[in-house]
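Hi R.,

As promised on Friday, here is the backbone we talked about, encoded as structure tokens. Could you run it through your design pipeline when you get a chance and send me back a sequence?
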């Protein structure tokens, strides 16, 4: 029997890769999206598949469907987009979680929440294990996203404790790959697009802040393992990220080398509350999921650059 799987945010960057992989594994997949940051183009190649449906809907409104599993990804993810309408970002995180958890409860479906490394804020513990409670500004410009995702985690845990809903929480670290929106403002897409167009590479701050970048296929693999290969009494949260840590200057150098671009670096002010460092501790994912990333930064950047060459 094919599983019926709902993917909210299914027309987004990560969601489209997840839908593709779930369909390839023989499931029936419903992608729900309001097309705020995602678009039909990301899933147009799936529309001919009779086991795929694309549904225009906003997760802040209730939604009912027969489903066995839910992956809750609906949320803008890039700082530029989630700050564009901060109130809507909080609503999407909180009301979206309530609506999807209500659906999971009603249908006895298993539900996975796409949480984020942003729950650790600007961390004082490095690398970040799941046991770290984080260092988050509750009233800053990133709070709509960080606190929204933190409340969503709370709601997931409370539906699990109070209503026995089968939940999984994944904390996703910076992820990149084909189908990132060229203008979404995240660093990997920005640098690649700038390099391909021989425009200045925009380094925010002095470029010594670090991030750990994972290729999207590794993330999708980790999410599916968490959903399928762990017992119901293991709910997470689990970090899924690549522990390779790079400064933004190092990232810029790699992108320039791999594109052969002549772009110059230009230094712009560091946005407020921008975390100084970030790197996942993935011991738990290794132990519980038998998961670790397979694609290193250079390999992943080459695939991503090849994609952006076709769209910019
Ligand atoms: P994305 O912006 O490409 O995808 C998000 C999708 O959600 C888009 O298709 C958008 O239209 C949709 N969406 C937004 N608000 C919605 C709403 N109210 N109702 C229905 N759909 C809505 O971003 P992404 O990188 O694919 O991120 C997917 C998920 O993973 C997000 O929940 C994000 O917070 C999480 N995440 C991503 C990263 C990353 O580095 N990519 C890191 C941590 C967490
Ligand atoms: N950044 C940068 N230039 C850009 C875009 C981002 O130097 O054109 C920096 C940003 O200040 C941050 C890091 O790159 O320190 C990662 O930013 P991104 O928006 O990709 O993700 P997040 O801050 O949410 O990890």
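Update: got your reply. Pasting your designed sequence below so it's all in one thread:
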């Amino acid at each position: 029997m094919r599983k019926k799987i709902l993917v909210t945010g299914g027309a987004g960057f990560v969601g489209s890769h997840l839908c593709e992989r779930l369909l390839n594994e023989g499931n029936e997949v419903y992608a729900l999206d309001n097309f705020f940051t995602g678009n039909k183009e990301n899933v147009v190649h799936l529309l001919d598949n009779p086991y795929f449906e694309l549904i225009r809907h906003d997760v802040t409104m209730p939604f009912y469907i027969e489903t066995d599993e839910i992956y809750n990804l609906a949320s803008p993810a890039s700082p530029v987009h989630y700050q564009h309408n901060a109130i809507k970002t909080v609503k999407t995180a909180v009301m979206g979680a309530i609506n999807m958890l209500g659906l999971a409860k009603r249908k006895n479906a298993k539900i996975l929440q796409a949480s984020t490394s942003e729950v650790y804020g600007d961390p004082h513990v490095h690398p970040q294990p799941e046991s770290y409670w984080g260092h988050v500004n509750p009233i800053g410009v990133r709070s709509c996203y960080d606190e929204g995702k933190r409340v969503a985690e709370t709601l997931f845990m409370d539906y699990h404790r109070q209503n026995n809903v089968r939940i999984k929480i994944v904390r996703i670290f910076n992820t990149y790959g084909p189908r990132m929106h060229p203008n979404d403002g995240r660093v990997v897409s920005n640098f690649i697009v700038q390099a391909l167009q021989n425009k200045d590479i925009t380094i925010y701050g002095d470029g010594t802040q670090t991030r750990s970048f994972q290729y999207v296929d590794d993330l999708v693999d980790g999410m599916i393992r968490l959903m399928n290969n762990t017992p119901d009494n293991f709910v997470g949260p689990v970090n899924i990220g690549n522990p390779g840590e790079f400064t933004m200057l190092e990232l810029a150098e790699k992108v320039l080398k791999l594109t052969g671009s002549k772009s110059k670096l230009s230094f712009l002010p560091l946005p407020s509350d921008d975390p100084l460092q970030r790197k996942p501790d993935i011991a738990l994912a290794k132990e519980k999921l038998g998961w670790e990333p397979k694609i290193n930064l250079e390999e992943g950047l080459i695939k991503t650059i090849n994609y952006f060459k076709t769209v910019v």
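One thing I noticed while checking it: The chain has one domain: 4-180+215-241+280-294.

Thanks again,
M.
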